[in-house]
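Reviewers of the previous submission asked for a worked example of the structure-prediction workflow described in the proposal, so we include one complete record here. The input consisted solely of the amino acid sequence. No template or homolog information was supplied to the procedure at any stage.
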Amino acid sequence: AGVALCDDQLFVALYGGTTINAYDPDTGTLTGAVDLSDYDDGDGYPEVSDLVEVGGMLYASLQQLDQNNGWIANGGMVLEMDCSTLEVTSEWDLDPNPKIASHPSDDGALLVTTGVYYSTDGVVCALDLESGEVSEPYAQEIDLGLDINQVVGVESGKALALASSVDDWGATYSILCGDLNTGEWSVV
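From that input alone, the workflow returned the following structure tokens.
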């Protein structure tokens, strides 16, 4: 599920839904919806993970996991939407199971975490919102030996990540502090 404010509207996406709904934040009245049925990965749902507002536009990460086939990753995307017209204006294919967050030092980018759950196959990188290019990884799960579940930028050039062990299927969690400029990460 994702929630974000954009253009004086509250946007809400349910993980098992096919729309991103827009509400008046003062009254709770539904004001419109963005239809995501074109982004179904085969099970009827695009699996919206996160919503982030950047520069008056709304961004959504679609994890595209096949719920009917053991939650296998069938892709991964980030969509850009105009908050006033409720139209998708850009889309980018990414590695499996993306999650997004505001970039702490680049207003024209998003932090992106990819990779399937309970595996060290993902990365933390940046998505340039103008060019659509993905940066070199800030962190790679294989190097850390951990599955990064979520990342948040906390100050210029820094980020915190919640990561889980893959040895015990996520029962052990760690908090990592990373420097996005040097690529150095350590357990807090």
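The first helix runs from residue 141 to 144. We consider this example representative of the routine output the project will generate in years two and three.
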